[in-house]
Predict the structure.
Amino acid sequence: MLTQTNRPFSFEEMIGQRGILSEMEKRSMTMEFPEVMIFSGASGTGKTTLAYIIAALLNDPDPLVDENGIKSPNPSSPSSVAIREEKFNRDVKLYDASSMSKEDVLNLGRSLSNAPMFDKHKVIIIDEAQELSKAGKGVTLELLEKKRKGTYIILCTMAIETFDKAVQSRGHVYTFRSPSSSDIAEYLFRLTEFLKLPDVPEIEEFLSKGIFLIAENCEGSIRMAVQNLERCVFGEFWTEEQIEKEFSFLSNEKLSDLILKILKKDVSCVKSIKDFGTKDFYYKALKTLNDAYLYSVTGFVDQPWKERFAKSIKTFDLEKVISVLLEVDKGVYFREDLF
C-alpha cells in the first residue's frame, strides 16, 4: 500500500503543519525533544507519521544531517527499519489504545522502569489515544507525570478533549490541522514519480485534473487521498468523469456551479445533484455556503476557490439561505425531492 511504502520519513517529506515541523526541525539539531508529546488532530493529518519520524531519530546512532544541521532518521538504521516495517520489536513500541485496559496502562508504566534493551531510548507511541477506556484514561496521568530518564511518550489522538486538563498539562500539545487541497495535490504529484503510470492519452487529464479532484474530496486526510490515488492507479480511473463516477466525487468548480444554479432557481442542476447524491450534495453545499458567509463577515477563508465562490454569490442573502437549509437538517428524514 502506498500509505505504508511511501510514508514520509523525514520532516521535509511531510506536508502541512509548517509550524510544528519547523519546531521539530530546530529540535532535531540538538535532539532536545519533549519527553511527553500529545499530537491532536483529525485522522490522516500526519500525527502517527511524525511520531514515527521522531521515534526513529531519537534512536538513530548515525542520522542524516542536511546543510542547515537539521537531522533526519537514516532509513537503514536498525530502529528505522523496525519502525518502517511496523515490527516495533526493539525499543520503540506502538500501542493501539482501543485494546488497552486500565491494567495494560499500569503495566506499561511499570515496564518503563527497565533500561532499553537495544537502543538509546525507550519511545512509547499510543495511537488513537481517545479510545482508551474511562479507567485507562484515569491512570494515564500516572503514566505521564513520572519522570523516567531516556523515555519518551507520544500520544496521538483525534479528541484531546476526552482527556482532562491535568493529563494535557503533562506534555507539549501539538494541534494538527488538515492540509489544504493544493498541498495534498502537490504531495500526490510527488507520489506519481514512484508509480509506473501507463503511457495512455488519459494520463494527461489525470495529472491536470484527476489529482486535484482526489485532493479536493479527501476531507483534508492525506491518508484518504493516497488510498484513493492508489485505487485510481490499479482501477485505471484516469479521467475526471471516471473518478467522479467511481468515488461519487464533485470538483470544487462543479460544486460552486451547482450551488449558484440553485440560488438562481435554475432547475437544470437537478439531474447532476441526483447523480452525485442529494444528501451528500446537501451537506457539501451547506458547508460551502457557511464558509462563504463567514468570508462575507470576517474576510477570511481557508482556500482560494472558496474566496472566488463567496465573491460570486455576494448579492444573495446567505444568512437566509443557510437558515432554510438548517431547517431542512432538523427534519426527521431527508427529502430526496428537496431540489
Q: What stands out?
A: The chain has three domains: 2-176, 181-247, 252-329. The mean pLDDT is 91. The radius of gyration is 23 Å.
